[in-house]
Structure to design on (137 residues):
C-alpha cells in the first residue's frame, strides 16, 4: 500500500505551497542615448530599445489591489531610462549589465532577461545588440 505524500491532492490541507512567481515585463522601452565606441556615437544620441522580463516572487501578503504590493514596471522603466541618459556608455553589454542590476536590486526579483538593441548602428539591419540572463545566487 502506498503511503500518502505531503503533496497529495486528495488532502489539500497537507499540501506544501511551491514557490510562486510571476513575470513582470517591459517591452520596447525606447531611449535616445549616447552609446558606442566610435567618435560620432559619443556626440550624437541614438535610439536604443530595451526589452526586460523579470521573474518575481509572489507576495506573501494579499495584493489588495495596492500598487505598493507589486514590482512596479514604471519605477524600473524610469530607473533604466535615467541610467541610460546619464552619460556615455561604450558597449551594449555594459548597458545590459547595468539594466539587469537595476532590476535585481528589487528583493522580489530573482531572475531577469534583458535585451538591448541599437536600432541605427548597422546599415541594412533593423537592430543589433545583446540579450543576457542574470539571477541572484
Amino acid at each position: 500500500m502506498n503511503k500518502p505524500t505531503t503533496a497529495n491532492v486528495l488532502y489539500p490541507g497537507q499540501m506544501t505551497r511551491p514557490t510562486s512567481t510571476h513575470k513582470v515585463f517591459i517591452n520596447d522601452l525606447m531611449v535616445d542615448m549616447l552609446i558606442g565606441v566610435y567618435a560620432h556615437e559619443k556626440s550624437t544620441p541614438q535610439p536604443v530599445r530595451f526589452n526586460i522580463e523579470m521573474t518575481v516572487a509572489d507576495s506573501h501578503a494579499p495584493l489588495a489591489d495596492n500598487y505598493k504590493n507589486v514590482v512596479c514596471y514604471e519605477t524600473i522603466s524610469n530607473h533604466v531610462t535615467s541610467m541610460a541618459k546619464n552619460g556615455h556608455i561604450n558597449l551594449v553589454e555594459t548597458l545590459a549589465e547595468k539594466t539587469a542590476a537595476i532590476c535585481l536590486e528589487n528583493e522580489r526579483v530573482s531572475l531577469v532577461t534583458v535585451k538591448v538593441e541599437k536600432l541605427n548602428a548597422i546599415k541594412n539591419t533593423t537592430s543589433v545588440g545583446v540579450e543576457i540572463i542574470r539571477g541572484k545566487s
